[in-house]
Amino acid sequence: MASQAIKQFRTREITGFLKANPKTSGKAVKVHNPFLPRLNTETGRWAPAKYSRRRQADLIKKARESNMLHLIPPGPKLGVKELESAIQGHAPAAAAFVTDAVQTAAESLRRKDRWTASIEWEGEVKEKKVPGADIGNRLYAGKKRMFKGHKWQRTMKKTKHRRWLLLRSMKGRISRFKSYRLIRVDVPPETSKSSCSSKDHDEGCQTPLLEMQIPIVFLFFTTANYTPNIHFV
């Protein structure tokens, strides 16, 4: 049950401190918050929280179900403001749980009610300021646009502009393409032997130009007063 899990949590965390101070009737007993990291004064190192974020969220969920949220310490998963509102809504006397008020009811320290005794949790909860948390809109608060959208949706404006430019100059490009045609003629090499001897080849003799297969490009223009770009194939 949810209430049984909260009772086990409180009993495990605070019963030892209450047994060590059985006559405490003034201020609430100070217990380190198991939801927060702890600084070791001897080594100067920080020890991680006793309960992981997942276990904290599970305990908070069970505390909400059993109406025992005022018995859970604040932490990363439960802010101080939310906890204060839960305490004030549960019972006015339980406000000492966070506001350090004095509770002198010694009956709460009896053996059967030790797990519900007033506890002052040590440790500062550093809450991260999330835009839109106060209005219940954390996901899209402070953003210029609501949804990211697909990539084709984000680039649609540039795509339409480029398409408009291509359509605007389409007739000119078609006319330039049709204004000339390209014919390739390959010149076959001569069948005669090379005039260079083997010795000349060793000395770097070059083959005559006519012995190489050279493509010749003829351009025929159908439009006057037009200077095309010559492309060799």
TrEMBL record:
<dbReference type="InterPro" id="IPR040922">
    <property type="entry name" value="Ribosomal_mL59_dom"/>
</dbReference>
<feature type="domain" description="Large ribosomal subunit protein mL59">
    <location>
        <begin position="4"/>
        <end position="178"/>
    </location>
</feature>
<dbReference type="InterPro" id="IPR037507">
    <property type="entry name" value="Ribosomal_mL59"/>
</dbReference>
<protein>
    <recommendedName>
        <fullName>Large ribosomal subunit protein mL59 domain-containing protein</fullName>
    </recommendedName>
</protein>
<dbReference type="GO" id="GO:0005762">
    <property type="term" value="C:mitochondrial large ribosomal subunit"/>
</dbReference>
<dbReference type="Pfam" id="PF18126">
    <property type="entry name" value="Mitoc_mL59"/>
</dbReference>
<dbReference type="GO" id="GO:0003735">
    <property type="term" value="F:structural constituent of ribosome"/>
</dbReference>
